[in-house]
């Protein structure tokens, strides 16, 4: 009789443990995604005809064929179909300044390292971060904050095309695994990871410091499939580098391709039991860029001397996100992203570190 009771008790404890584990796994997951140097105009206003007709575009007919439309709304949907067919229907979009919807940086540098620091820490730090040099960030990111807390330790990861991200995230101090630039996947590798390791340098190497986004995407996706992290950061990079090169047609194609990569990731998480219906996507950029071809407003440039480089945008999709679509008459700031992630994951946060208010999503 005692043996039967013991077995019943063990079975009950097992069911309680399984139930608790399932409940833990159903807590929110967050994917933070950035597209480097993408203007709000290209997200909201469709194809910029002035730039198409400029010397920045080599094949004007092809770009018009791919992305022009009878209205800005039709054009922008061709450029970013996932944004306008999924996020606009089920999520929230901020940053269309023609509608009074504004997202702005609080840092005054208006280039990448300061922008990513602001996104990830919730604070600008112009006093210490004034270059894109490979210096380890002294500030604590929300990734590190999560990884240092027991329930998220080992469940945070970052993947980036730009090779400065191990320094921005401070992988040595934070313990957050960062695969960036031309780093290989490590550990017990899947066949696809082995293939990606082999292929990433066999494909054209356009920039030594920035690999093609398709490799960053699939390294991230394979890791997500194997390890099911709770907080994932993916930083795509091609758009900014094509823009700096004055290649508007390749910039627009990269933006279109990145939209497709994000759609692929969203489709995957909605089919995976661990992520389905309890995963948030927060999508933004590290800075804006110039509005056209004029001096101090050149589309190729950004930085504190470039008009409009402080203007960014933000997209949010997830289970408790109110279906607002495109917003108007609102002011948000990039420093609100880290506290929003902290709020979604119920992190114990240092109020001295993250002081901005989180976004109200419901």
UniProtKB/TrEMBL annotation:
Alphabetically ordered keywords of this record: Signal
InterPro entries: Alkaline_phosphatase_core_sf, Metalloenzyme
TM ranges: none
A Pfam family per the record: Metalloenzyme
Signal peptide: 1-22
Domain Metalloenzyme, first and last residues per copy: 222-347
Signal recorded as keyword: yes
Keyword Membrane recorded: no
Full protein name: Sulfatase-like hydrolase/transferase
Organism: Maribacter confluentis
């Amino acid at each position: 009789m005692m043996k039967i009771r013991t077995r019943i008790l063990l079975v009950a404890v097992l069911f309680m443990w399984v139930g608790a584990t399932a409940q833990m796994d159903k807590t929110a997951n967050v994917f933070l995604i950035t597209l480097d140097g993408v203007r709000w105009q290209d997200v909201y206003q469709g194809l910029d005809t002035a730039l198409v007709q400029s010397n920045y575009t080599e094949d004007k007919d092809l770009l018009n064929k791919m992305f022009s439309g009878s209205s800005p709304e039709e054009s922008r949907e061709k450029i970013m179909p996932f944004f306008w067919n999924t996020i606009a229907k089920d999520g929230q979009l901020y940053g269309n300044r023609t509608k009074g919807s504004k997202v702005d940086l609080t840092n005054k540098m208006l280039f990448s390292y300061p922008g990513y620091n602001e996104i990830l820490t919730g604070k600008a730090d112009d006093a210490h971060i004034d270059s894109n040099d490979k210096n380890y960030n002294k500030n604590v990111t929300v990734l590190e904050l999560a990884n240092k807390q027991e329930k998220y330790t080992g469940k945070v990861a970052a993947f980036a095309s730009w090779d400065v991200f191990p320094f921005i995230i401070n992988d040595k101090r934070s313990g957050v695994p960062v695969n960036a630039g031309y780093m290989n996947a490590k550990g017990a590798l899947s066949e696809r990871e082995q293939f990606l390791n082999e292929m990433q340098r066999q494909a054209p190497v356009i920039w030594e410091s920035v690999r093609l986004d398709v490799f960053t995407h699939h390294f991230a996706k394979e890791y997500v499939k194997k390890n099911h992290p709770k907080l994932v950061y993916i930083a795509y990079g091609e758009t900014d580098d094509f823009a700096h090169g004055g290649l508007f047609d390749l910039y627009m194609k990269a933006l279109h391709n990145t939209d497709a990569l994000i759609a692929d990731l969203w489709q995957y998480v909605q089919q995976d039991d661990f992520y389905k219906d309890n995963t948030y996507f927060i999508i933004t950029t590290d800075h804006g860029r110039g509005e056209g071809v004029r001096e101090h407003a050149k589309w190729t440039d950004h930085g504190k001397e470039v008009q409009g480089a402080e203007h960014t945008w933000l997209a949010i999709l997830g289970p408790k996100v109110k279906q607002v679509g495109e917003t108007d008459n609102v002011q948000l700031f990039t420093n609100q992203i880290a506290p929003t992630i902290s709020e979604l994951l119920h992190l114990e946060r240092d109020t001295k570190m993250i002081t901005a208010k989180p976004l109200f999503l419901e």
